[in-house]
Every structure is written in C-alpha cells, then in structure tokens.
Design brief:
alpha+beta; Molybdenum Cofactor Biosythetic Enzyme, Chain A; Molybdopterin biosynthesis moea protein, domain 2; Molybdopterin biosynthesis moeA protein, domain 3; 4 domains; six-stranded mixed β-sheet; 7 helices
Length: 410
C-alpha cells in the first residue's frame, strides 16, 4: 500500500494482495449512524441496537381454543357415560373479557385469544361440551393449564428479542409490532454514487451505433448496490476528461463512490490521478484476475472504488471490494451474499501463482465445469455461468475431481 504513482501507459509494477485490500476496508469501514423508521418501513433494514421487550407477550393468560373456561380440576371423572354439568355465567371475547370470577361449578364461554377469567385455569374445547340453556355438559376431563396461552409465553418482559445487526424479516417486524416497538432504530442505508466514464459510451437504454457501445455497468452496479442494502444514484455519463471526472467526484455527497472505467493505465484513465489529488489512493492495481486495474481510495474517509470498465472485471471488483464496503457501512455481514456449495471439478482449472483468479463456472450433474472464456469483457459469460470459483494466490489451480467451493449467482 504505497503512495500514488502515475502508471499510465507503463503498467502496474506492484499489485496489492486481495487479502490486504480486504483488511484495509475492514479496518476503515464502520456502520453508519442510526436512524428511526416506522414499522411499515423496517423490513429489510438492519437493526442498530438490541431490542428488549418492555412488556410480556401475551400480556395476560388467554384461551388457545374456542370453548369454556373453568376450573380444570373439577372436570376429573367426566366421560361419555358420566357427564358433568357446569353453570355458564358469561362470555369472554377478544378485547372484551368477562369481568367476574369463575367459582366452583361454573364456566364461561370463551373464544380463542380472549382473556382467561379470574378463577379459571383451563379451557374445555367446544366440541367436547354440550350447552343447553344456562348449563354446559362436559364429557371430557381437561387438566389445569390445558388450552391456555400463559402470560409472557411468547416473549418475556426484559428479554432481548432481536440483536443488533439483524436484517429484519417480515416476521421480525411482526414481533416488534407486538411489543409496540416503534419507531425502530436501524442503520442508515449508505448512499452510493455510480460514476461511469468513457467517450465511447451511450447511456443505458440506447442502442449500439457505430463504434460506440451502450453502458451496461451502471444498471448492473445499481442492482448490486440495492442487493447489498445501499441507495444507488447513477450520475450522468462522464467523458474521458480530467476536469469532468474531478467535478463528478467533488460534487457528490454520497457515502460511497463507484467509478466505472478510466481506472487502468491508458492515457485517458484520469480517475486514479484525480482521487490521489483530492484524497488518498492506497490501492491501484490488485493481484486479481480479471480485475487487476481496480483501485481503492478515500475522499475524507468516504471510500472511492475504481472499478474496471470491462463488465466481468467490474462485477468481480465490486463483489470482493466495493460491495464489502457497502455492506459494512450498512451494518450487514461483509462477506459476499452468495450461497456456496463444495462440489467436484469436471475439468481442471489452471491458474498462476501470485494472484487470485475469479473463474466463471457452470454446475452440471453435480460437477463444476469451468467456462472456456476468460475474457473480462465477455459479459454474457456471467449469465451462462451458475457461479464462480476463487482460486487462491498460492495455487496453480485445481485438478479434475478436486472439491472446490462454488459461489452461486442465484
């Protein structure tokens, strides 16, 4: 991690190790400050702190069945040939409890979820009873506690219900609602500016014409940032002009800047110089294929990621580096959010010692098949691929039949 050197038209002499770049990011990225959101906006957000139950759930003993609330001990001995009778003295409904007390020989008609009346300790299912007039005939014994939801059996008061860092699922939000926990304190979502450079580019949504190509990286990065919990903002295309690149970086107040294109060693690659001039650029060039031109810088502690213009390289550098920062800033787990599986190789993977290789693969009949293409600009290879394998820097590759970890795109 040395000071910036202008490597344009000369190539990279030193490349940072992937692990060193990851360590740099982990050392400098911390979750953003918390903000409060309404319950209805909390799903998918990251809890900023532990949630402790201020009240028990349920807050009262309640019926778990429709039937009759009574004293369970009084039903012992009841059976089809020995029915016992109880006087029905009232009704308990959800939100409208019976206000009296159940004494010996008495019962209260009760609905599921209704408060259990004082004096009662069990609920007899309606199908095991027969009411006639003001009395109910019981033909089945119910022990005390049967069909009763006890106070606090779901959540006890004072219990930690959800831990900080949890990505809230729909059922988590329901638990928060049951506790009356609103608003919810969540980590602020990182705002991510996406800056795409290149004189040869047409805006996404255009049709290719002449020697110009359509920008595809912006829509891919926008989706990746959204997947990782960030708020993406795609800026207008920036020409290969030093002042235009500088203006794009200076004028945004985003938490993270992604610069796609203009990051390598060509004479039109201005982004590295601009970042080094405005802030710091500890990483320019990584021992990683196919994303070796990637760079990492900081503008007043805001991370700037120089992502190669070639689409596969852009995806690779985003997932390993930029996405990690977005996820950490948003309070999420920093690791790549892909399912993975360990499977045998159908054919060998060749690699070079000294760099990490990002190898696109297919999974067929339970085996891993490396795709023949290695081009970083062949975007369609990522749609043909089921995932990728990362070959470590100290490996020459993997032999047929060897077990490898596959990160699955879906």
């Amino acid at each position: 991690m040395s000071s910036f050197k202008d490597v344009r038209m000369r190539g990279f002499q030193d490349r940072a190790e992937v692990d060193a770049v990851v360590a740099l990011l982990d050392g400098r990225m911390r979750p953003l400050s918390p903000e409060n959101v309404d319950l209805h906006a909390a799903a998918g957000r990251v809890l900023a702190g532990d949630v402790t139950a201020g009240v028990p759930v349920p807050a009262f003993d309640r019926a778990a069945m429709d039937g009759y609330a009574l004293r369970g001990g009084e039903t012992f001995g009841a059976g089809p040939y020995n029915p016992l009778e109880f006087e029905v003295i009232g009704v308990s409904l959800p939100g409208r409890p019976f206000s009296g007390r159940v004494e010996a020989g008495q019962a209260v008609r009760i609905m599921t979820g209704a408060p259990l009346p004082d004096g009662a300790d069990a609920v007899l299912q309606a199908e095991n009873a027969e009411q006639s007039g003001g009395r109910v005939s019981v033909s089945d014994a119910v022990p005390p506690g049967r069909h009763v939801g006890r106070r606090g059996e779901d959540v006890e008061a004072g219990a930690v219900v959800l831990r900080a860092g949890r990505v809230l699922r729909p059922q988590d939000v329901a638990v928060l609602a049951s506790l009356g926990a609103t608003p919810v304190s969540v980590v602020r979502r990182p705002r991510v500016a996406i800056v795409v450079t290149g004189d040869e580019l047409l805006p996404a949504g255009s049709k290719p014409e002449g020697y110009r190509i359509v920008d595809s990286n912006s829509v891919m990065l926008e989706a990746l940032v959204g997947r990782d919990g960030g708020l993406p903002a795609v800026l207008p295309l920036v020409p290969d002009n030093r002042e235009a690149v500088r203006a794009a970086l200076v004028e945004t107040d985003a938490d993270v800047l992604l610069v796609s294109g203009g990051s390598s060693v060509g004479q039109e690659d201005h982004a590295p110089q601009v970042v080094a001039e405005l802030g710091e650029l500890p990483v320019h060039g990584v021992a990683l294929r196919p994303a070796s031109p990637a760079g990492v810088g900081f503008l007043k502690e805001r991370p700037v990621f120089l992502l190669p213009g070639n689409p596969v390289s852009c995806l690779c550098a985003y997932d390993l580096f930029a996405g990690r920062a977005v996820r950490r800033l948003g309070g999420r787990a920093p690791e790549m959010p892909y399912r993975n599986a360990t499977l045998p190789l159908a054919r060998k993977i060749a690699s070079a010692v000294g760099r990490v290789d990002y190898v696109r693969v297919r999974v067929e009949n339970g085996q891993v098949e490396p795709l023949a293409t290695s081009g970083a600009s062949v975007l369609s290879s990522t749609t043909r691929a089921d995932g990728f394998v990362l070959v470590p820097r100290d490996s020459e590759g993997h032999a047929p039949g060897e077990q490898v970890k596959v990160y699955l795109y879906d």
